[in-house]
Structure to design on (709 residues):
């Protein structure tokens, strides 16, 4: 039940190593914000700075309009769920959830009421007397969430809460977290993950962190449909977006491009300026947006080196144009047999074609986009 | 021959003999007893592998029986017989005689005092030192200093501390550190080791001084094994440093604390050297082990001496069993 404001937040170690800089972000009450980014991008560090477990070495952090840089974690009105659950191994589930309330000096009746309400919400009522070691991974994670809920914090912080769970449990717990969020529409949540499925499904807005800064902030579909840089374009979506070398040959409300790599031409719905004519750009097409094309209107033509038939879709990996290049990947719906070793021609609808000049999307080129100097994968 | 050469030859023979035993026993098992060839090769290999551990363990088991199990039985026999009467069986007479001696009850009382004070003080101080030295830059130097007494023999430590408690006539300069401080502050020099009851505690300080380092090293390792995230979770939950220490850290290393505690308890039950070297049980500082030594080797009373030894063993055994169980549980 609070909004957060980060202004020029910075993290340096020993005054020399800068991990994060120029972090500017406003989070509204009731949002579920997901920090994603490649490993080492500082997303967990940023979360721990919000929690107060790491010192903020520059800039300000405000919760509900109050500067909290130097406020201890327990007085910031936050609660945190850790990756390894961080349950107190010597306390029962009940005592784990009651610990913070006991410290806060709540009465026995109040503690009991809150713990039982949280246990009810998380289906833990039958496990209150157990020690954490007698619980499954999913139950432990629910206890960790319960420990947050009883404190009724302004902001919930989740640090990769699902990464210690197996795949099936991860999906189930992810849905539980989504339902939990729906039950508590006023609570603000910040969720760190490296799993983009979690990011896409849970977030009201995603913050893509990379190279020590924020690459892009936006709703999941905004990032998917209008990535501001080649980094975000390739980071969101799996398999990653294909980036093909291209040259602008027609400008205006739509842009026409020649693709030397694939030998074809394509139209993008991105508008361009007259002076862009002849510019060398990158043309981004997601594998799932590729469709088979006729002889005259193809964008890309190549030899299929490997196919992966998954039933619902077939993945085509084209022969690399040069060693070290990423292979172009096509994802065609349904089953396609006998394409291996064949030459295949592909294209995409204009509204699915992205154009990047110097790594920045033509749609965002006046917005001062931060281009991380790292690879998305 | 020079004694040093004799020593070297003994070492060479001893080590060589051990190596030779394992080598030839292994060879005999594989080549002669159960050769891995012929029609029963597979069965022979299995049998050899079943016997091999026992062959290798035999020297250790044999020596343990000879020097540990046999003496227990023999001491029990001695405690029930009278040597001067031609090893006649006298039942519990030796125990009765021992129970009638005030020195024995003094030793029992003092041992109980030692048991209460020393393990608790060593473990508590060790835990405190482990926690305080954990995160500071010169913590390792402090740890080395605290650990150093562990390297000193009990007798050596007793000599050092006897000098600290030393007392000189009033006219002379006090060379004892404690009396030097007391007189410098305007007090009168005391003969510390002769003040009944309290002198027990002056002796205990020596053992605490030695054992704190041991407790600190073990507990420091245990403290580092605590998952950092549980401590961070406690910080977020609003716990202060003291509460984190007592409610989060100590319970998580509780099994280790028990192991340290019981290990020092075992040592205290057997305490001998410090008392022997500092007061020899005078001025009401007698302890069981020194009492046993007095009876066995000074008074040549084998019956009562052995009875005292049995009492010590009976006291040590349950704590030993508990200790071993805790260590095993922790290794799991």
């Amino acid at each position: 039940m609070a909004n957060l404001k980060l202004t020029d937040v910075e993290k340096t170690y020993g005054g020399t190593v800068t991990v994060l800089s120029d972090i500017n972000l406003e989070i509204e009450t009731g949002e579920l914000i997901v920090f994603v980014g490649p490993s080492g991008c500082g997303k967990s560090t940023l979360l721990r700075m919000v929690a107060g477990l790491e010192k903020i070495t520059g800039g300000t952090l405000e919760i509900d309009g109050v500067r909290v840089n130097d406020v201890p974690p327990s007085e910031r009105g936050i609660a945190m769920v850790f990756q390894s659950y961080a349950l107190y191994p010597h306390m029962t589930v009940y005592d784990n959830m009651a610990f913070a309330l006991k410290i806060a000096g709540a009465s026995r009746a109040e503690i009991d009421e809150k713990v039982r309400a949280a246990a009810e919400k998380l289906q833990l009522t039958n496990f209150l007397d157990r020690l954490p070691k007698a619980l499954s991974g999913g139950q432990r994670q629910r206890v960790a969430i319960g420990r947050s809920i009883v404190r009724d914090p302004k902001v919930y912080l989740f640090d990769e809460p699902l990464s210690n769970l197996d795949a099936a449990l991860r999906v189930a717990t992810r849905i539980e977290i989504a339902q939990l969020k729906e039950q508590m529409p006023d609570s603000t949540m910040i969720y760190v993950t490296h799993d983009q499925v979690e990011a896409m499904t849970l977030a009201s807005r995603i913050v893509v962190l990379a190279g020590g800064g924020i690459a892009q902030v936006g709703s999941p579909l905004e990032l998917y449909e209008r990535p501001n840089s080649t980094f975000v374009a390739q980071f969101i979506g799996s398999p990653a977006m294909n980036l093909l070398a291209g040259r602008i040959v027609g400008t205006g409300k739509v842009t026409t491009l020649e693709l030397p790599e694939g030998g074809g031409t394509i139209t993008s719905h991105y508008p361009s300026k007259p002076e862009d004519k002849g510019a060398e750009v990158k043309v981004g097409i997601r594998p799932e947006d590729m469709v088979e094309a006729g002889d005259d209107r193809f964008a890309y033509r190549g030899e299929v080196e490997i196919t992966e038939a998954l039933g619902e879709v077939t993945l085509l990996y084209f022969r690399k144009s040069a060693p070290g290049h990423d292979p172009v990947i096509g994802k065609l719906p349904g089953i396609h047999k006998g394409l291996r070793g064949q030459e295949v021609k592909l294209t995409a609808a204009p509204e699915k074609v992205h154009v990047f000049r110097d790594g920045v999307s033509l749609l965002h080129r006046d917005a001062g986009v931060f281009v991380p100097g790292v690879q998305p994968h | 021959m020079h004694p040093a050469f004799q020593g070297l030859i003994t070492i060479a023979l001893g080590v060589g003999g051990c190596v030779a035993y394992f080598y030839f026993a292994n060879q005999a098992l594989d080549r002669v007893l159960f050769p891995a060839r012929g029609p029963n090769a597979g069965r022979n290999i299995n049998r050899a592998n079943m016997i091999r551990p026992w062959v290798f363990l035999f020297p250790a088991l044999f020596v343990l029986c000879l020097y540990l199990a046999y003496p227990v039985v023999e001491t029990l026999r001695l405690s029930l017989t009278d040597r001067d009467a031609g090893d006649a069986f006298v039942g519990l007479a030796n125990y009765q005689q021992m129970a009638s001696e005030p020195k024995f009850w003094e030793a029992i009382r003092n041992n109980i005092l030692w048991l209460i004070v020393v393990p608790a003080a060593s473990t508590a101080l060790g835990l405190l030192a482990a926690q305080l030295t954990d995160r500071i830059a010169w913590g390792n130097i402090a740890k080395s200093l605290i650990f150093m007494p562990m390297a000193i023999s009990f007798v050596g430590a007793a000599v050092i501390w006897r000098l600290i408690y030393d007392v000189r006539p009033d006219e002379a300069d006090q060379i004892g550190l404690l009396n030097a401080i007391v007189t410098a502050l305007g007090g009168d020099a005391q003969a510390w080791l002769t003040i009944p009851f309290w002198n027990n505690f002056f002796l205990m300080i020596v053992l605490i001084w030695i054992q704190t380092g041991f407790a600190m090293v073990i507990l420091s390792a245990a403290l580092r094994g605590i998952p950092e995230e549980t401590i961070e979770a406690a910080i977020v939950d609003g716990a202060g440093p003291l509460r984190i220490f007592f409610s989060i850290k100590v319970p998580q290393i509780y099994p280790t604390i028990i192991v340290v505690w019981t290990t020092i308890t075992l040592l205290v039950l057997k305490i001998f050297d410090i008392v022997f070297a500092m007061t020899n049980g005078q001025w009401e500082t007698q302890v069981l082990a020194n009492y046993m030594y007095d009876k066995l080797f000074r008074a040549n009373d084998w019956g009562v001496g052995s009875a005292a030894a049995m009492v010590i063993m009976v006291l040590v055994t349950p704590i030993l069993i508990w200790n071993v169980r805790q260590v095993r549980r922790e290794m799991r």
In short: The two ends of chain A are 35 Å apart (CA to CA). The longest strand of chain A covers residues 17-27.
